[in-house]
Amino acid sequence: MNEIPFEVRRVINVLVVFWQMCNNHPDRVGPSRTIDELIDRCSVGRSFSREIYHDLYSDRRSKYAGFSKSDFIRYLEAEYNQPTYEEPVDLGWEQADLAPHTSVSHFYERHCWNCKGHISSAICARCSVCGFFICSSCSSCFCRNP
Which helix (DSSP H) or strand (DSSP E) does residue 27 occupy? Predict the structure, then answer.
């Protein structure tokens, strides 16, 4: 398991405490600017943490109702330990450099559903899970499309 940085560990701990509050007092929980700011300061897993946090204070908290505390912590840590998209994006840039030499002439050109950034098969790698191209700006693919 990778060593989880302090900022990520802090967000995980806050989400666990918030999850416990949601289980014990669901009528008393709601959005918190403090938690939003803490998630914004985190450099890794920001969109995942925000999604979990939103689920917890909305009507989708039941997705996590069957978790024990340790299960919920493992679930949050597993996201941090997922392989990053940096390596596939680097491979995408390498593919773009080799394209003139490999006679690849057709490129997929679209925009990202999340950040509206440009997606091109010449520079973006495919996600091994959903098969769509990974945005080089925000690292989104269709796995996280709501």
Answer: none
